[in-house]
């Protein structure tokens, strides 16, 4: 699958319809124009198929997502109609072939037909891991920069009221965070902490209780000679954690704060990322 995606994704992604899940859902035509279907059920159907690309999504799963409150007796027929409308919509905007296949148990979206941003994110992360394993840290950072730049906001932000898609969105957000954290760690290894601060500050602000992001930000501020700001990050993290979940920061975060307070020389080492 990775090889197929690499060949299709890097060679001709611009000629395929794009499905964007790393932010509010968006469908982009081969000409770059937004062609997202307007009817909510068409979008929900398409999102669920994209999220599970190359895997059969059962009719029961699709019906549950389309009718969250009360499933009509005609749900099976209505589902078939929505699938037909989605196919016609994509075909009318240059998707050749449409790549939504019918199976005995449900439907499957074939990833090779589309440019899927969440699959591209995974592929780029794998490339970065290989580059890092070979000692090419700068190359790995560049690849991860490309990967994290795919994000346009909270994944599937416009579908968080649909339970099954809310779960998918949170999983995609976590994939982004893992990639972003690794990029930040490698940038710090390259002594780029000062340049990293504005971007890392913005991401940490978006996830006010995410400790790893705040630990990295504290370390960036400290290494940039901005100790007071490093300690302020800890204070804000603690406040958010106590308010949100009633817990103190982890032992790791507390230990980092103490080392900053005492100007521990271990914090000056570029490899001291896991405190």
From TrEMBL:
Signal peptide: none annotated. Residues 11-111 bind DNA. One of its GO terms (biological process) is phosphorelay signal transduction system. Residues 11-111 form the OmpR/PhoB-type domain. One of its GO terms (molecular function) is DNA binding. The keyword Kinase does not apply. The keyword Protein transport does not apply. Gene3D superfamilies: Tetratricopeptide repeat domain, Winged helix-like DNA-binding domain superfamily/Winged helix DNA-binding domain. Keywords: DNA-binding, Transcription, Transcription regulation. Belongs to the AfsR/DnrI/RedD regulatory family. This is OmpR/PhoB-type domain-containing protein. It comes from Mangrovihabitans endophyticus.
């Amino acid at each position: 699958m990775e090889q197929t995606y690499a060949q299709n994704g890097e060679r001709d992604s611009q000629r395929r319809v794009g499905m964007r899940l790393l932010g509010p859902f968006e469908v982009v035509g081969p000409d770059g124009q937004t062609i997202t279907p307007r009817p909510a059920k068409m979008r929900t159907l398409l999102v669920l198929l994209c999220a599970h690309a190359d895997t059969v999504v059962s009719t029961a799963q699709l019906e549950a997502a389309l009718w969250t409150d009360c499933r009509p007796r005609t749900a099976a027929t209505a589902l078939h109609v929505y699938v037909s409308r989605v196919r016609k919509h994509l075909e009318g905007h240059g998707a050749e072939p449409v790549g939504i296949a019918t199976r005995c148990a449900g439907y499957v979206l074939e990833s090779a037909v589309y440019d899927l941003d969440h699959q591209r994110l995974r592929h780029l992360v794998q490339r970065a891991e290989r580059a890092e394993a070979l000692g090419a840290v700068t190359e790995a950072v560049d690849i991860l920069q490309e990967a994290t730049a795919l994000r346009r906001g909270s994944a599937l932000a416009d579908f968080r009221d649909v339970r099954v898609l809310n779960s998918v969105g949170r999983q995609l957000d976590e994939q982004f965070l893992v990639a972003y954290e690794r990029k930040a760690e490698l940038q710090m290894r390259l002594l780029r902490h000062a340049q990293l601060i504005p971007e890392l500050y913005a991401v940490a602000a978006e996830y006010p209780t995410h400790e790893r992001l705040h630990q990295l930000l504290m370390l960036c501020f400290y290494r940039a000679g901005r100790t007071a700001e490093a300690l302020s990050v800890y204070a804000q993290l603690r406040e958010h954690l106590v308010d949100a979940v009633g817990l103190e920061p982890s032992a790791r975060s507390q230990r980092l704060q103490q080392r900053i307070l005492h100007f521990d020389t271990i914090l000056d080492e570029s490899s001291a990322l896991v405190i």
